[in-house]
Amino acid sequence: MSAEDPLFILYVLDIRIDGLTQGHRASTGGYLLGAALTIKYVYDVHPDNKFACMADIGWIIGHIYILYGLLTKGVLTTVFKSMPVYPTPSRYWQTIKKHLFTQFYSTLTTIQLLHRLGSYHVELHDLSSLRVLSSMAEPINPEAWNWYKYHFRQEMCTIVDTFWQTDMGSTVVTPFTGAIET
Question: What is a single Pfam family found in this protein's UniProt entry (predicted)?
Fold first, then answer.
């Protein structure tokens, strides 16, 4: 197999002038290398870690952080197919506590929703297994950042905000875990 052989084609929402959807073709070598490097350096993932990415598997972030990236490190992953607040607003926190996840990756919209629902749902659960918190989809705002930091082991967790582009196939801009104070 060549490094340039296709690994997958992900169809995005962009519609071309001719009315067809645009497919993003990821090459085997480049995509897997990018996945392995971001898993190692951005999220500080080790073989004994458990990574919780709450993105949809059909999204590029779901592809890399639910499947391909974690497989390059042999790390336990999860496919979370549910609403973040169903059947209870504690759904994510119950899952983190039950499976002892070390990294948690979710959208800013979800973080803001959980913040609005109240800290009570977070405080019910021991989340001491967490080491890295991350947000995706849009830049994290100070209010969400502070809530995230305060309720998730405070100075014990690193917070990583990521910027993505589907056609890049990987994180474009983000700090390395532990490289800057969060």
Answer: AMP-binding
